[in-house]
């Protein structure tokens, strides 16, 4: 019997190189831009119909504030409630006097973490008076605590609910994403519309901004409680409420305290900005210094905010990490708290109610002298850098985005986001751009996007370099970490004045402030991601003969891909937030529209629409970078 002829192997289909599709897409995009340049553009129109409609809506709200049931029985009561919380906390802090408040801070520090935290708290709060900003610092502290109390009052129960219910978690997650993506400016216009200006609107705006960390971390803490422990409690006959109160919450308490820590940090970053809507405190001093371009007068209240942030951060972190040491340790903690607090309260009637002026140290003039020297001697370099970035990057990119047809920019973003992050992210990104166009703010939106892209590239490059260096060198990390801590706790306003002194008013000033503001977060996430690469993998690569350079490029960076994309995401979102604030120093674009909405009644509608446009740009950029984190790497795709 004759054997069957062998079946020929199927012809191997040759695939095009991976670079062909992107290059072809770029060529097509450039060709379309050349062909349609200057056509189907959407120039800015301050007299857009939507802006007038929003102004009419504001007028209706003002006319019906004291007659409409929604305002009478909901909005007005929320405003009065927030104002009452602030008044009670501020009254209590002022009644303590400066010795009582310093003693209470030291006592709480002792209770949270022992004598070291007590010393940090005592020195930090006393430093507020030494800097000459005691009264303003107390007002800022009162606003912060008011917002934090309300954030935790609503955030922790919602976080517990989300931690126990996957359905609730799916509902609240996109809402929390938008709340955290929103630039801080975007919160202010709606707050003014609903709650007017003053401490109440400031407290509510800060509460909304600071609530997401409380919800997210509480939900994570509840979700991570061991299921075996919960089942054991329920098998002994405990009800769901008893299991929550006696099992879940005690086991999750330390993690929930970290959520409190992050809520306080978020509130402190927002409170100074609410000075734009007539909130009292250190933000007022920052605004005045910004108007006078006084670097020292802006830096000193910024230092005061840093001191408050350090004290509250150390307290809550120590409380989160604390372990019960038995009855004796608890007695020592509570005894120290009682002694320090009583000592401070006892000194209040003896010492002056206000911090003694002779104990204050004036450092504004020395700071201004240094700033003047830098401005005089670095002018050649700073002018060159400013012009290079403006004429080499900002102007060409802005010209492309504003002269290209709106449909071409939208299609390009759709294709790019689809390739990087998937179809869903691409559709969301395109929908966000269409929303900006529908708001009548396309041109200003593209101007803002230009500054964000240039600033984000600078930020990510510098943060990546610093993070890699810190991950590869322990001593460099030890030197860098306190600098990053200080940079992260400084209020965003404080970065504008040094940038103005160096570069004058303009777009590059806003980009420089955004660079300083966002680089610490990028560097820290990159460092943590590289350090998380397993040591066994590193040793295996070294034993195979890899050099340090090969180890970085072929092992650490690919394995830390998720952290690198998270760093890029945070860098872009934070750059957007800071670039918008740069409107206060002449950056223009959407940020200027928002500020104009506060300053001029006839521009309120434009300012409110600009706030929405900023949210859309933030969501677009966030979806692209977050979606990329969920995609498989090219290396994994080839090996799949």
Automatic annotation (TrEMBL):
Query: Is Transmembrane helix given among the entry's keywords?
Result: yes
Q: Does the keyword ATP-binding apply?
A: no
Cite the InterPro entries for this sequence: MetI-like (IPR000515), MetI-like_sf (IPR035906)
Q: CDD domains under this entry?
A: TM_PBP2
Could you tell me which PROSITE patterns the record lists for this protein? ABC_TM1 (PS50928)
- Return the Pfam families for the record: BPD_transp_1 (PF00528)
Q: Which PANTHER family match?
A: GLYCINE BETAINE/PROLINE BETAINE TRANSPORT SYSTEM PERMEASE PROTEIN PROW, GLYCINE BETAINE_PROLINE BETAINE TRANSPORT SYSTEM PERMEASE PROTEIN PROW
Instruction: Give the record's family classification.
Output: Belongs to the binding-protein-dependent transport system permease family.
Q: What's the name of the protein?
A: Glycine/betaine ABC transporter permease
> What organism is listed for this UniProt entry?
Microbispora siamensis
């Amino acid at each position: 019997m004759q054997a069957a002829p062998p079946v020929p192997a199927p012809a191997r289909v040759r695939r095009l190189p991976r670079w062909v599709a992107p290059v072809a897409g770029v060529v097509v995009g450039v060709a379309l831009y050349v062909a349609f340049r200057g056509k189907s553009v959407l120039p800015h129109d301050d007299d857009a119909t939507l802006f007038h409609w929003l102004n009419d809506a504001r007028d209706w709200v003002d006319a019906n504030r004291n007659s409409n049931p929604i305002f009478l029985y909901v909005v007005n009561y929320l405003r009065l409630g927030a104002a009452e919380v602030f008044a009670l906390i501020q009254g209590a802090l002022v009644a303590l006097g400066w010795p009582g408040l310093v003693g209470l801070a030291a006592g709480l520090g002792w209770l949270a973490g022992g004598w070291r935290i007590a010393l940090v708290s005592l020195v930090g709060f006393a430093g507020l008076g030494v800097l000459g900003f005691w009264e303003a610092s107390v007002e800022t502290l009162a606003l912060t605590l008011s917002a934090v109390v309300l954030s935790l009052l609503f955030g922790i129960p919602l976080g517990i609910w989300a931690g126990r219910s996957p359905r609730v978690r799916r509902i609240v997650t996109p809402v929390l994403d938008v709340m955290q993506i929103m630039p801080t400016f975007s919160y202010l216009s709606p707050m003014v519309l609903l709650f007017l200006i003053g401490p109440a609107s400031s407290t509510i705006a800060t509460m909304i901004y600071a609530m997401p960390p409380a919800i997210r971390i509480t939900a994570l803490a509840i979700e991570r409680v061991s299921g075996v422990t919960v089942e054991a409690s329920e098998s002994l006959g405990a009800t769901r409420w008893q299991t929550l109160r006696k099992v879940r919450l005690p086991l999750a308490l330390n993690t929930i305290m970290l959520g409190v820590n992050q809520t306080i940090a978020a509130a402190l970053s927002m409170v100074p900005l609410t000075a734009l809507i007539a909130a009292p405190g250190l933000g007022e001093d920052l605004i005045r210094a910004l108007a006078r371009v006084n670097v020292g007068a802006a830096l000193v209240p910024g230092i005061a905010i840093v001191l408050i942030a350090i004290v509250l951060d150390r307290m809550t972190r120590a409380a989160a990490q604390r372990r019960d040491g038995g009855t004796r340790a608890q007695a020592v903690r509570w005894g120290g708290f009682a002694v320090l607090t009583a000592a401070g309260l006892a000194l209040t009637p003896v010492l002056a109610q206000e911090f003694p002026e002779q104990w204050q140290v004036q450092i504004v003039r020395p700071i201004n002298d240094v700033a003047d020297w830098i401005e005089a001697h670095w002018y050649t370099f700073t002018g060159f850098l400013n012009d290079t970035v403006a004429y080499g990057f900002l102007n060409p990119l802005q010209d492309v985005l504003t002269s290209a047809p709106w449909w071409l920019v939208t299609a390009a973003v759709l294709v790019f986001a689809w390739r990087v992050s998937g179809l869903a992210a691409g559709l969301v990104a395109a929908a966000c751009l269409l929303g900006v166009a529908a708001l009548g703010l396309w041109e200003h939106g593209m101007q803002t996007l230009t500054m964000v892209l240039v600033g984000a590239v600078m930020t990510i490059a510098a943060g990546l370099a610093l993070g890699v260096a810190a991950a590869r060198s322990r001593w460099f990390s030890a030197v860098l970490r306190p600098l990053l801590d200080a940079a992260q706790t400084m209020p965003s306003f404080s970065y504008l004045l040094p940038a103005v002194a160096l570069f004058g008013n303009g777009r590059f000033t806003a980009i420089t402030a955004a660079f300083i503001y966002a680089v610490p977060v990028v560097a820290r996430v990159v460092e943590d991601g590289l350090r998380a690469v397993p040591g066994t993998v590193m040793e295996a690569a070294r034993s195979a003969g890899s050099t340090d350079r090969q180890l970085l490029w072929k092992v650490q960076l690919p394995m830390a891909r998720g952290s690198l994309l998270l760093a890029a995401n945070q860098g872009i979102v934070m750059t957007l937030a800071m670039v918008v604030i740069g409107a206060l120093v002449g950056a223009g674009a959407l940020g200027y529209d928002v500020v104009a909405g506060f300053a001029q009644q006839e521009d309120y509608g434009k300012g409110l629409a600009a706030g929405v446009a900023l949210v859309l740009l933030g969501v677009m950029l966030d979806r692209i970078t977050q979606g990329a984190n969920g995609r498989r790497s090219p290396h994994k795709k080839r090996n799949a």
